[in-house]
Amino acid sequence: MSSPTTVDDEQLAALVRSVERNGRRVTALDALVRQLAGDLAEVAATLVPEAAGPDPVRSWLLSQDPEQAVTDLADLVGWTRRVFLRYPDAVLSACWLWHPEVIEELWWLRRAHAEAFDPKAGTWLRVGDWHDRQRPGVAKRVRAAIGTCELSLHRTGTAHARPAAPAPLADHAEPIAVAWTKDALAPRPEPTDEQLHEADAYMRQQHRRT
């Protein structure tokens, strides 16, 4: 028969072993929790969108998304009233929306204005460049493009109603490209009789338009 002391020692030893086992389990569980936390953080990083950066550069002339075009043009209309038309040399004819080249000019000027005055990325140097060079340049070109135009000149059959003309002699671009890549220092290919005829017809057409 075991003595009370022996029993107590055995119970104590069993208790120590149990505590050790539980300690190892807790340690393993703690490591597992840390691993799961790291895995969850990685998953969350893939689900949370990146912080919004600057607006992408977009050309009005290359617009293909109607919804985006509507949004951009509405923004531009508001900006012309708040900013562009505040300057005495800024002129917009009633038909300015019918001139895609004018919208393109105003659009880039509007975005340059936003960059110059951006609370984080803007600088006084950009602001000065916008006031001294960019805005006057666009105002001058817009005035030259539509200063004498009116909406009635955009009706069917008028000059402004015609679609943009293709680049002259565009069908002959391939041999020029091939010749250039073979030897950039060599003379350009000599014009053929066909090309000279097309060029002459193009010039006559241009004279008739003017």
From TrEMBL:
Q: Which domain of life is it from?
A: Bacteria
Protein name in UniProt: DUF4913 domain-containing protein
Species whose genome carries this gene: Pseudonocardia broussonetiae
